Amino acid sequence: MMTRFSLRSLRSLSSLRPGSYFLLGSYVLLSAVAFFSYAIGNSIDHTWQLFFTELVAWIIFWAVFQRPRWFHYLLLPAMLAVPVEIYLRLYFGQGISTHHLGIIFETSPKEAMEFLGQKVWLLLLLMIAICGWWGLTLKAARSSNELEWQHFSRWIVIALALAGTAIWQYGSCVGIAAAPVVAHSNPDSSDEEDSASSAPTTETKGRVLSNPDLERLRQRLVISPGKLPAWAAIPYSEEVMTQTWPFGLVSYAIDFWNERRYFQELSEKNRNFRFHAKLIGDPETPQTVLVVIGESSRFDRWSLNGYRRDTNPRLSSENNLVSLTDMVTPVTATRLSVPIIVSRKPATMGLRAGFSEKSFLTAYREAGFKTFWISNQMSFGKFDTPVSAFAKEADVTGFLNMGGFTNTSNFDEILLTPMTLAMHDPSPKKLIVLHTLGNHWNYSHRYPKQYDQWQPSLFGVVDPEYTDLKNKEALNNSYDNSILYTDWILGELIERLKASNQLSSMMYISDHGQTLYDGDCLLAFHGHNTQFEFHIPAFIWYSDAYQEQFPEKIAQLHKHQKSKLSTENVFHTLLDMGNIQYPDEKLDWSILNTQLQKHTRFVDSKGWVDYDNADMNGSCREVITKKPARKKKKVRK
Asked: Which CATH number among 1.20.120.520, 3.40.1280.10, 3.40.720.10, 3.40.50.800 corresponds to the domain 278-459+469-601?
């Protein structure tokens, strides 16, 4: 009689047939993908937790399906994804993510062929080999009846899994009675901790808390009745689960599905929206409008704006470039600030998800321009989808970043070739938007070695301790080096516009700035409501042909160079730059127009604050509402 898979058979694995060994070995290899980083000399966080999470997941998975023949079909997508996972880990330092799934599912076969080139044949051979591997394991799974779990322990495992899931869900919904431990902000994420709607205060974020700080936080803590006791919490980490193989792919698939649904909801809100925009002028005259959205760049680190270091040698040499010296962003998080830049979304709506109108890309399309959005940032993810929802309005959309914000991310020069190709498009009118990684942390990962000018820097340091003030000088030097590289990128873009001999113009604007342990300030990065983060660099460049065609616009640009501006001005300025009109246009918001008026510049700093009627508090220059002057008491005679 054939041996059944049970506790007894676990003690005597030598009794299994070769096919069963082959099947179990294949599952071990599949699970080992999670530890592939070790094979290429990289470390893995939470190694033992990852190992035991995979082990428990396999036991529960096997208990639910009882025998391999019932679940082996579900493993085909994971096996096909193995080459992609290894490729991403080898060349980009990270595995498959929600963003990568978006690229895979949204890339056409033609685009994939162009991207892979000769590698497509290697990929094809790999896929054939993997399908053959899966077919052999399927045959083994269908014939390995001895791996069927019939022992009563299977039901114990299922019961424990259900109970653990219920307890974990209860703790997630109601909470766990545990004291908070606050450390510091995590600059490696795009906007996880810097969301203006939930940002920590400047007393707690960006530094390690002292014991009195922790004690005050504990005193403020209110334990709600019904919370799960700390000792009963299930030691489950969703972050670790997403790293497991093959089970982590399910988490990414669910995230991808949710992000797609959220994206569709955002798109549905403005699906029928129209600006009814039209071009004023000859539609056959070649014209290129270039918009560059920077990342984490602050105004006072640009020598173009008076910084002592020459961080802008190329831009400073441009005669047709006007730096806008008093531009602020209402919020200091990319996912919240970019929608205000590209649309008519008011600053005071900046914390709300979505917007009922489309962006300037749609207005340009209505006016006859072919539009491009080329990004070195991410397309899908909790903090990226609100931006990519606008990006998808373009005729051509490309997301080139496969490495997230890691040290293996592309440098922004990867944008130069597709930008040049877009300029050579036969359409006479073109709008090109480039979304850069710019000066996002880790700053030393944003530029190549030849731009590591100011020393000491963090260049070559894989995981620097950003909260250690001993690294303050190196951190600031690295940031300045990243600005120097940004200057080179922007200079290259301008040279390409000059070479086209077209009617061309360009606007650069950063989404937000950075705080960098300025003076005695103990804060770094963004999300702290400081002047260093609200005051951002911006400039407009124009070709000689553009100045000849629109002399009045250029005259107004120079006149308004020092005007008090906000990113709310960008949408209206860009349409005016393209000489595009629409029925309810607001020329009093355009920097290029005689009708420009001063508007209240609201910024989110513990509530909406009038930036021009606020105090800049302390070394961190936190923007706070100016207190009304106290009335003097009348003294009775």
From this structure: 3.40.720.10
